[in-house]
Amino acid sequence: MRQLIVQTFVTLDGVMQAPGGPGEDDDGGFAYGGWSVNYWDEQMGQVMGEATSRPFAMVLGRRTYDIMAAYWPDAPEEQGARVFNEATKYVASRGRPRLEWSNSVLLEGDAAEAIAALKQEDGPELQVHGSANLIQTLLRHNLVDQYRLWVFPVVIGSGKRLFADGTIPAGLKLVDSTVSTTGVVMGTWEPAGELVTGSFG
Q: 3-state SS of the chain: helix, strand, coil percent to 5?
Protein backbone atom coordinates (compact mmCIF):
# COMPACT_ATOMS: atom_id res chain seq x y z
CA MET A 1 0.00 0.00 0.00
CA ARG A 2 1.44 3.35 -1.05
CA GLN A 3 0.63 6.72 0.49
CA LEU A 4 -0.54 9.54 -1.79
CA ILE A 5 0.78 12.91 -0.66
CA VAL A 6 -0.30 16.31 -1.99
CA GLN A 7 2.80 18.49 -1.74
CA THR A 8 2.17 22.05 -2.81
CA PHE A 9 2.69 25.76 -2.23
CA VAL A 10 -0.42 27.82 -1.43
CA THR A 11 -1.19 31.44 -0.61
CA LEU A 12 -2.96 32.30 2.63
CA ASP A 13 -6.23 32.44 0.67
CA GLY A 14 -5.65 29.01 -0.84
CA VAL A 15 -4.37 29.83 -4.34
CA MET A 16 -1.83 27.35 -5.72
CA GLN A 17 -1.55 28.64 -9.29
CA ALA A 18 1.88 29.47 -10.75
CA PRO A 19 4.03 29.86 -7.62
CA GLY A 20 7.28 29.48 -9.55
CA GLY A 21 7.28 32.26 -12.10
CA PRO A 22 5.43 34.41 -14.65
CA GLY A 23 4.05 32.38 -17.54
CA GLU A 24 4.07 29.13 -15.55
CA ASP A 25 0.26 29.01 -15.70
CA ASP A 26 -1.61 32.11 -16.85
CA ASP A 27 -5.01 30.42 -17.23
CA GLY A 28 -7.85 32.82 -16.53
CA GLY A 29 -5.56 35.82 -17.04
CA PHE A 30 -3.61 34.99 -13.86
CA ALA A 31 -1.06 37.79 -13.48
CA TYR A 32 0.79 36.89 -10.27
CA GLY A 33 3.02 34.01 -11.38
CA GLY A 34 6.09 33.73 -9.16
CA TRP A 35 4.43 34.76 -5.89
CA SER A 36 6.49 32.26 -3.84
CA VAL A 37 9.96 33.12 -5.12
CA ASN A 38 10.95 35.99 -2.81
CA TYR A 39 10.11 34.05 0.36
CA TRP A 40 12.65 31.25 -0.10
CA ASP A 41 15.20 30.75 2.69
CA GLU A 42 17.77 28.16 3.70
CA GLN A 43 15.38 26.37 6.06
CA MET A 44 12.88 25.83 3.24
CA GLY A 45 15.64 24.32 1.14
CA GLN A 46 16.41 21.89 3.96
CA VAL A 47 12.78 20.83 4.35
CA MET A 48 12.47 20.32 0.59
CA GLY A 49 15.69 18.32 0.60
CA GLU A 50 14.34 16.04 3.32
CA ALA A 51 11.10 15.48 1.38
CA THR A 52 13.04 14.38 -1.69
CA SER A 53 15.81 12.45 0.09
CA ARG A 54 13.69 9.33 0.51
CA PRO A 55 12.41 7.32 -2.46
CA PHE A 56 9.28 8.75 -4.11
CA ALA A 57 7.32 8.68 -7.34
CA MET A 58 5.30 11.57 -8.73
CA VAL A 59 1.69 11.76 -9.86
CA LEU A 60 1.19 14.71 -12.20
CA GLY A 61 -1.48 16.31 -14.32
CA ARG A 62 -0.52 16.94 -17.92
CA ARG A 63 0.11 20.68 -17.55
CA THR A 64 2.37 20.31 -14.50
CA TYR A 65 4.18 17.46 -16.23
CA ASP A 66 4.90 19.68 -19.24
CA ILE A 67 6.19 22.50 -16.99
CA MET A 68 8.48 20.18 -15.03
CA ALA A 69 9.63 18.25 -18.11
CA ALA A 70 10.70 21.51 -19.73
CA TYR A 71 12.88 22.40 -16.74
CA TRP A 72 14.32 19.46 -14.79
CA PRO A 73 16.13 17.40 -17.48
CA ASP A 74 18.58 20.28 -18.03
CA ALA A 75 18.55 21.75 -14.51
CA PRO A 76 21.75 21.81 -12.45
CA GLU A 77 22.42 18.96 -10.05
CA GLU A 78 22.77 21.36 -7.10
CA GLN A 79 19.11 22.32 -7.54
CA GLY A 80 18.10 18.71 -6.95
CA ALA A 81 17.56 17.73 -10.57
CA ARG A 82 18.71 14.13 -10.16
CA VAL A 83 15.94 13.02 -7.81
CA PHE A 84 13.22 14.42 -10.07
CA ASN A 85 14.78 12.99 -13.22
CA GLU A 86 15.21 9.54 -11.68
CA ALA A 87 11.77 9.36 -10.04
CA THR A 88 8.94 7.58 -11.82
CA LYS A 89 6.42 10.10 -13.16
CA TYR A 90 2.81 8.88 -13.48
CA VAL A 91 0.93 11.26 -15.76
CA ALA A 92 -2.85 11.72 -15.90
CA SER A 93 -3.95 13.02 -19.30
CA ARG A 94 -7.12 12.85 -21.34
CA GLY A 95 -5.00 12.69 -24.50
CA ARG A 96 -2.16 10.47 -25.68
CA PRO A 97 0.88 12.73 -25.17
CA ARG A 98 4.42 11.68 -25.98
CA LEU A 99 6.09 11.52 -22.59
CA GLU A 100 9.77 12.06 -23.32
CA TRP A 101 11.05 12.85 -19.81
CA SER A 102 12.85 9.82 -18.37
CA ASN A 103 10.80 7.30 -16.35
CA SER A 104 7.41 8.73 -17.39
CA VAL A 105 4.32 6.50 -17.45
CA LEU A 106 0.91 7.46 -18.86
CA LEU A 107 -2.01 6.53 -16.60
CA GLU A 108 -4.52 4.76 -18.82
CA GLY A 109 -8.29 5.23 -18.54
CA ASP A 110 -10.00 6.92 -15.60
CA ALA A 111 -7.44 8.87 -13.54
CA ALA A 112 -9.04 8.18 -10.16
CA GLU A 113 -9.27 4.44 -10.83
CA ALA A 114 -5.70 4.30 -12.12
CA ILE A 115 -4.34 6.16 -9.09
CA ALA A 116 -6.38 4.05 -6.66
CA ALA A 117 -4.82 0.98 -8.27
CA LEU A 118 -1.33 2.50 -7.98
CA LYS A 119 -1.88 3.02 -4.27
CA GLN A 120 -2.53 -0.71 -3.83
CA GLU A 121 0.87 -1.61 -5.24
CA ASP A 122 4.16 -1.86 -3.39
CA GLY A 123 6.59 0.98 -3.96
CA PRO A 124 7.66 4.42 -2.74
CA GLU A 125 5.23 7.14 -1.71
CA LEU A 126 3.32 8.96 -4.44
CA GLN A 127 3.83 12.72 -4.37
CA VAL A 128 1.48 15.06 -6.23
CA HIS A 129 3.21 18.30 -7.24
CA GLY A 130 1.20 21.19 -8.66
CA SER A 131 -1.60 19.62 -10.73
CA ALA A 132 -4.51 21.72 -9.41
CA ASN A 133 -7.12 20.09 -11.66
CA LEU A 134 -5.96 16.55 -10.88
CA ILE A 135 -6.04 17.28 -7.15
CA GLN A 136 -9.76 18.11 -7.39
CA THR A 137 -10.34 14.59 -8.76
CA LEU A 138 -8.25 13.07 -5.96
CA LEU A 139 -10.21 15.02 -3.33
CA ARG A 140 -13.58 13.95 -4.73
CA HIS A 141 -12.51 10.30 -4.60
CA ASN A 142 -10.95 10.51 -1.11
CA LEU A 143 -7.54 9.37 -2.35
CA VAL A 144 -5.25 11.79 -0.46
CA ASP A 145 -3.43 10.35 2.58
CA GLN A 146 -1.42 13.42 3.55
CA TYR A 147 -1.06 17.12 2.72
CA ARG A 148 2.36 18.75 2.90
CA LEU A 149 1.43 22.38 2.44
CA TRP A 150 3.65 25.43 2.45
CA VAL A 151 1.41 28.39 3.22
CA PHE A 152 2.94 31.68 2.07
CA PRO A 153 2.06 35.02 3.70
CA VAL A 154 0.40 36.48 0.61
CA VAL A 155 -3.18 36.78 -0.63
CA ILE A 156 -4.10 36.99 -4.30
CA GLY A 157 -7.88 36.81 -4.40
CA SER A 158 -8.28 34.77 -7.56
CA GLY A 159 -6.69 31.77 -9.25
CA LYS A 160 -6.73 28.00 -9.00
CA ARG A 161 -7.33 26.92 -5.42
CA LEU A 162 -6.16 23.79 -3.67
CA PHE A 163 -9.55 23.22 -2.04
CA ALA A 164 -11.90 24.39 -4.76
CA ASP A 165 -15.70 24.28 -4.96
CA GLY A 166 -16.83 20.69 -4.67
CA THR A 167 -14.30 19.70 -2.01
CA ILE A 168 -15.84 17.16 0.36
CA PRO A 169 -16.01 18.55 3.93
CA ALA A 170 -13.60 16.69 6.24
CA GLY A 171 -11.51 17.05 9.37
CA LEU A 172 -7.71 17.16 9.26
CA LYS A 173 -5.03 16.52 11.87
CA LEU A 174 -1.79 18.55 12.01
CA VAL A 175 1.12 16.12 12.44
CA ASP A 176 4.12 18.41 11.84
CA SER A 177 4.82 22.10 11.35
CA THR A 178 7.65 24.59 11.14
CA VAL A 179 7.90 28.25 10.11
CA SER A 180 10.55 29.75 7.83
CA THR A 181 12.39 32.99 8.62
CA THR A 182 10.19 34.62 5.96
CA GLY A 183 6.89 33.56 7.55
CA VAL A 184 6.09 30.52 5.40
CA VAL A 185 4.21 27.92 7.46
CA MET A 186 5.28 24.42 6.41
CA GLY A 187 2.69 21.99 7.75
CA THR A 188 1.80 18.35 7.33
CA TRP A 189 -1.84 17.35 7.73
CA GLU A 190 -3.57 13.98 7.55
CA PRO A 191 -7.28 13.17 7.11
CA ALA A 192 -9.11 12.81 10.42
CA GLY A 193 -12.53 11.60 9.34
CA GLU A 194 -15.71 13.50 8.72
CA LEU A 195 -16.14 17.15 9.63
CA VAL A 196 -17.77 17.35 13.05
CA THR A 197 -19.69 20.52 13.88
CA GLY A 198 -20.77 21.77 17.28
CA SER A 199 -22.14 24.74 19.16
CA PHE A 200 -20.83 27.02 21.87
CA GLY A 201 -24.43 27.78 22.89
A: 30, 25, 45
